């Protein structure tokens, strides 16, 4: 039998009401994670997840811990049913939940880091207004060449931020430069070139100014070597030490998300089943297009979760009901 990878989504998968299906089945999650997260961060995160408003949930500093929290609760439900991953990976923000699943981070530390990360990233956009856009239907090399040319012509930053799958590339940078790349991509034959509703030029060199400050936050938490094999989206390779995890998380802010390479590495390691753990189903679609023969499952609503629990067998020797690290409320970040 092939291996199973749990993959965790990042920003863009958020929606009002996410995670409600988990609380219906497991009301204990409300105290274990949601109310504990409210106390830790000092914001009504649980209410924002359940009720919105949507505008507040789009705030990067809220979106990131909200998506993390929903994916964390979903992970608990899967483990409670005996499902365990053979390998884990996450798309950008999703790496933090993947690292909790791998035993690298306590979830409370990961939550604080995610909140700090979101605040720092949102602050960049206040100083240097930027945006992101998805280019569909062009090869990576073509989009890279467009970015290089536009940067040279305008003297503004625009770079490839995400290599999501062979024909989906996300660019990030200053607004005028991103808009120029969108226009030129369509002239070059792109199927679509769509602006993304995100609050900053993520995964571009414009984010490099916050790396040192975020590194200081990383230095305050304990990182352990992965107990479950973890594939980094920064390197698209296996990461085996706590020191290398820290380096990847620092580089992640301004570095490219190599999701195509990450999924191919998982497949090379024997993964034939991908479970997207958390809100949304975009990540599973990317996995399906990168590895068409793989089985892909979602957990974003009650029906998807039920199908996944029915289709994916429990891990051999798994201890159903094993809890994650217990919550210990701390200072707001």
First and last CA, distance: 44 Å
Largest sheet: 4 strands, parallel
Structural class: alpha/beta
Which geometry do the CA atoms define? globular
Q: Write the element-wise H/E pattern from the N-terminal end onward.
A: EHHHHHEHHEHEEHEHEEHHEHEH
Strand order of the largest sheet: 2-1-9-10
Percent strand? 5-15%
Please tally the helical runs, counting DSSP H or I stretches of 4 or more residues: 14
- Quantity of strands, as a count: 10
User: Low-confidence parts lasting 5 or more residues at pLDDT below 50?
Assistant: 317-333
**Overall mean pLDDT:** 92
Helix content: 40-55%
Radius of gyration: 19 Å
How would you describe this structure to a colleague?
The radius of gyration is 19 Å and the shape is globular. It is 47% helix and 15% strand. The chain has 333 residues and is an alpha/beta fold. The longest helix is centred in the N-terminal third of the chain and has 21 residues. The C terminus is likely disordered.
């Amino acid at each position: 039998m092939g291996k199973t990878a749990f993959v965790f989504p990042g920003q863009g998968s958020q929606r009002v009401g996410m995670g409600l299906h988990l609380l219906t089945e497991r009301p204990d999650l409300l105290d274990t994670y949601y109310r504990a997260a409210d106390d830790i961060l000092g914001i009504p995160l649980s209410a924002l997840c359940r009720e919105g408003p949507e505008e507040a949930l789009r705030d990067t500093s809220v979106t990131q811990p909200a998506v993390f929290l929903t994916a964390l609760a979903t992970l608990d439900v899967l483990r409670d049913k005996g499902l365990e991953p053979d390998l884990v990976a996450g798309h950008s923000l999703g790496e933090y939940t993947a690292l909790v699943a791998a035993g690298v981070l306590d979830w409370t530390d990961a939550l604080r880091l995610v909140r700090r990360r979101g605040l720092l990233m949102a602050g960049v956009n206040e100083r240097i207004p930027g945006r992101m856009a998805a280019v569909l239907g062009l090869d990576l090399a073509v989009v890279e060449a467009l970015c290089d040319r536009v940067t040279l012509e305008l003297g503004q930053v625009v770079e490839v931020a995400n290599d999501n799958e062979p024909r989906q590339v996300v660019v990030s940078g200053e607004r005028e430069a991103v808009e120029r790349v969108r226009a030129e991509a369509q002239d070059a034959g792109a199927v679509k070139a769509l602006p993304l509703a995100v609050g900053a030029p993520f995964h571009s060199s414009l984010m490099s100014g916050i790396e040192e400050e975020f590194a200081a936050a990383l230095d305050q938490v304990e990182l352990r070597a992965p107990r479950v094999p973890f594939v980094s989206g920064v390197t698209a390779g296996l990461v085996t030490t706590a020191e290398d995890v820290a380096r990847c998380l620092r580089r992640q802010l301004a570095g490219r998300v190599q999701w195509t390479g990450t999924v191919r590495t998982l497949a090379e390691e024997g993964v034939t089943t991908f479970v997207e753990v958390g809100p949304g189903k975009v990540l599973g679609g990317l996995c399906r297009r990168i590895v068409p023969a793989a089985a892909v499952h979602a957990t974003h609503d009650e029906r998807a979760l039920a199908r996944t629990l029915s289709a994916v067998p429990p891990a051999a020797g798994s201890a159903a009901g094993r809890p994650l690290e217990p919550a210990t409320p701390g200072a707001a970040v």
